[in-house]
Structures are given as C-alpha cells and as structure tokens.
Amino acid sequence: MKAALTFTAALLVSVGMARGQAVTESKTIGGKTIVITYSSPKVNNRVGKLFGKDGRIGQDPTYPVWRAGANAATKFHTDADLDVGALFVPKGDYTLYVDLTDPANWQLVINKQTGQWGLTYNKDQDLGRVPMSMAKARGLVVFGTAGTTKQDYLRQIGVDHPIDYTKEDFLSVVRRVAPKGIEMVLDPIGGKTLAKSAKCLGTMGRLVVYGFSATVGPSGKRSLLRAAWAMMQTPRFHPMTLMRRNIAVIGVHLGRLEDRSGQLRIELAELLRMYGTREIKPVVGKTFPLAEAAAAHRYIHARKNIGKVVLTVP
Predict the structure, then answer these.
(1) Which of 88, 202, 203, 283 has its CA 20 to 30 A from that of 310?
(2) HSE value, Cβ hemisphere, 13 Å, CA-based, for 190
(3) Given a cut of 70, is residue 196 above it in pLDDT?
(4) Across-strand partners of 110?
C-alpha cells in the first residue's frame, strides 16, 4: 500500500479498486447530499499501463481527457452550491472528467453535459477545471493527525484516515490499516512521537524530521527538563538497522541551508508557480503584525490555528 502520514487535499481517484461495476458514494452535510457514481477500471495486471498516451486510457477518443472511471462517465450530483477548490459549482448534475495532459499535474474537469456513456466529451460544456492534489492522483493513501476540533478540517482536505491523537494511538491506526507499513512520515514533534513514526515505516519508507516541538511546553517556552525528557525518548538509528529495514531518516532545517540558497530559490520559484496556478492552496489560519510575533507563537502553541500563522510587515 502506498501511504503517507501527512496532510493533503482530496479528489476522486478510483483506479485503486480491482472491480469494474458501478459504485455510488454519497455524503449528507447539513441536510444537503452530494453523490458521485463511477465505475473503477479493472487493473488486470496492467499496473503502470493504464495512464499515459501509450496506456489503455490513451486509446480513448477523448484522451487526454478521461471519464474518471470505466465504462460510463462519472456522474456528480449536489443538492447545494459548492466551492470545489476555487471553482463555484451551482447545485445540479454534472459529469466529472480528468485532464491527464501533464502526468504530474492532473486537473479535475467539471462538465455540464450529462447522460453520455463516457466516450464523448464537449469542452464547450465545461463549467471549469480544478488542479488535483497529486498525492491523491498518484494513488496515495493519506493519514493525518490532529486534535478533536480539527478532525472535520482533515476530512475536508481529503485525509483518508484522520486520527484524533487525543483519543487514538496513530501507530495502532497505521498498523491496522497498513500492516506492512507506509512509505513516508513527516514528523515535526520528535521525542516519543518520533519513535512511533519510525515504527510506521514499511520497506523503503522514509521518515522526515523537520521540527522538535516536544521540547516546548504549552506556553511556547522551552524547558530544559522537558527537552531532556524528549531527548531521552528520541530513538537512536543505527546504520545496520536502517540497512536491515531498508528505511531512511532525513532531517530538514531551512535555517541551516545558507550554502544552498540557489537550490532553495529554484524550489521556492516552483512553489510560487504552483501557487499561481492553484495547484497548491496554502491555508492561512490567522495573521499577526510583526510586532506581535510573540502572541503569534503563543497562538500556535495553544494549538488554535488551522493552517499557517502569518506575520505581516507594515
């Protein structure tokens, strides 16, 4: 199972299923229902041979636009007006397609034409297009941890397995869903959490460490006692263990990459490009003036934010 313990946005991907019959999924929110009906293509030993111009889907007359399923086109009904990404979708019935032109950046196509079998596509009927989250488009299963008040948000952005860390042990959830382990864990906490994160990995898994908040208390201040305790709980990774398990542990500290400024500029330029085309949509939870930076840190450590906290400069 390809899986990652992180956060991302959700979009329809049906290729992971092995059967071809029609499936209907529905969700009722506030008395309004959203329904998607699709048929998942049978893989039949064609892993890696479905997508792309030389794949099975490349033979469809609508390619590189795909009907997002097998046989009939994928149907989408909503009882309420919706915002899908940056696209406003009035209540009604639609057909969903996926534009596969760029293998790394699929687009969800919401089309106003309905009733077709799936072998025709009229671009003039497009309501609009929305960049897809490629974690989902590439078939990843996503786990995400947060407190009780943020569980709905995790579901909204497409986390397959939202985990309330105040009620569940994330390691137990991962092992239950993916007994052979997952491919990547992003850990900003450290301490005993880092030890559990390492146990989530399967063969060829990667653990990325980009923070150590376990050393900081609820007030936002570092505590020598707390830091010492966190360090005692932090696992030691022996090279022989890493080789035996075929896993990697990676550390990232942007503040220590001064000698890699050229590479950082390239990566930042790509992120800005993706932001401009709405391939990524950063969530800003709250803004503070630069003079209130301390209050911003307290806000974060109180775990009140959903999304990034931004300091503004006059």
Answers:
(1) 88
(2) 19
(3) yes
(4) 96, 128
Distance CA 179, CA 197 (A): 14
Q: Tell me the whole-structure pTM to 2 decimals.
A: 0.58
* Structure tokens belonging to residue 268: 């930042």
For 49, phi then psi, to 5°, come to -120, 10
Q: Is the dihedral of CA 249, 250, 253, 258 positive or negative?
A: positive
Calpha distance 279→276 (Å, rounded): 8
User: Tell me: domain 141-281, CATH 3.40.50.720, correct?
Assistant: yes
Residue-range domain boundaries for the chain: 17-137, 141-281, 282-314
Residue 18 · residue 143 · CB < 8 Å? no
CA distance 189 to 186: 9
SS3 230: helix
Three-state DSSP class for 312? strand
Contact 20, 50 (CB under 8 A): no
